[in-house]
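Regression test attached.
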Amino acid sequence: MRRMWILASVLAAASCGASSQDKAGGTDARHEVRVAHQPPSAKDVIDAVIASGNVPLSVSPTCNNVGTEPSDSTIGRYLAGFMAELSSPDKKNWIETQVESGTSAKGEPVSICRLTLRHLDGDDRWGWGVQFHVRKSDGLVLADSFTCTGAG
Amino acid sequence: MPTSQLALNSFLGKPIGDICGNHYANDADNHCAHFVSHIMGYQFGVTCLTMFRGKSPGANIRVQEIFPRCPTVGTWDSKPQDMTTCLVFITNASNVDLAKKVMSNVPRKHIGIFQTGLIYHYSNTQHRVVQQTPEQFSHHYAAPDNAMFYGSLP
């Protein structure tokens, strides 16, 4: 049941929410993602992560070997590996989001957003996710700000 | 590195909040690698300081980052008899490539410190440092996630 809920959330967020567009114009195929509200809501944070699924894990040293399979190479694939572990209906799973104000590496005011997938079943206990910045001036998700969070 | 049995015993019963000076101590997080790294002084890779603001030296928090740092690794059964202190890992054997010295970041993996017949590790259920025999430790996860491996100290 819980898995169905998560799946529904993912699909709903992917179909209507953060605007994303491939920047047209010659060879520039950058994929820009913007949040729907400022400061971002929990739904906006989840939506932004889904829309940023193609961000490579090479974006940060914190993402080295975080995938559940050695071949995982994107944020989307990394998180999908842990979402796939939320399948048991009698275990405790939840999605945690946090938003706080901060400053980007370039000194711009940003919202520091964090999404954590959590699982709790005795000593099988973990929280893996991502942190990223949303520029306050225009709601742009700064793709190069992604880091991978989690321990264990 | 306080790897003597006496020194390790001094951590028994302590919650991670008493060990980590950076206050990275959320009970919902997994602190097995975090505990081992604070005790052993492993400051490489992603640390508690990476995850949380603090002023104390950071300690690594990821099992899959510690495993390849071990000079030698192998199945628990192949541990040299004269190796009385080492790291011990438990996970599904399919998550480990001993030849490449790689462990995947799967959810069910755990680490402890083996010292003269006992394993010291952080119980994320009890929220404190505990001591077990290797046989007791082998039940940390149900099969098939309970294959044990040793790693000489990085």
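Expected vs. actual: identical. Chain B has five helices and eight strands.
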